Amino acid sequence: MALTMYAYYDHIMFVMATNDQLKKSATGVAKQTAWTASGSVVGGVVGGPAGALVGAVLGAAIGYWSAEDYEATITVLKNLNDEDKQELVKRVQMMVGSTGLDALTDWLKISTNHRIFIEAVRAIISKATQK
Predict the structure, then answer these.
(1) Cα angle vertex 112, ends 92, 103, to 5°?
(2) Could you give the CA distance from residue 16 to residue 21 in angstroms, rounded to a whole number?
(3) Average pLDDT, stretch 69-92?
(4) pLDDT for residue 36
(5) What is the mean pLDDT of the chain?
(6) Cβ atoms of 63 and 101 closer than 8 Å
(7) Labelling 31: which of 71, 108, 122, 124 has CA 20 to 30 A away?
(8) What PANTHER family does the record point to (predicted)?
């Protein structure tokens, strides 16, 4: 991995560790989505369309309350092998549309990009942990 890749990876780690808004966005995104979907399915089976709506709302609430620890995500990222780090960097740079460190910081100032960023990070983590 080239020096610029390491610098960009380090910047991703720095941003994740220090950006409180990103932490709030990231906390439990995957779990919340799973709980919402599960609640909708169970509610739909039990009560039809209205049950699906109620189940989705209850599932979302449960997902929010049981959100996973953000620090665990950072720990997994720190332990990625070089190939996975490089894939993470490439994916983030593609989303941001730039290889510049400041571009990533500016891109993450837009709150709607937080979820996109976290979903990309989680996809890399999921792939890495399945090896």
Answers:
(1) 40
(2) 10
(3) 84
(4) 76
(5) 81
(6) no
(7) 108
(8) NAZO FAMILY MEMBER (PTHR31493), PROTEIN C19ORF12 (PTHR31493:SF1)
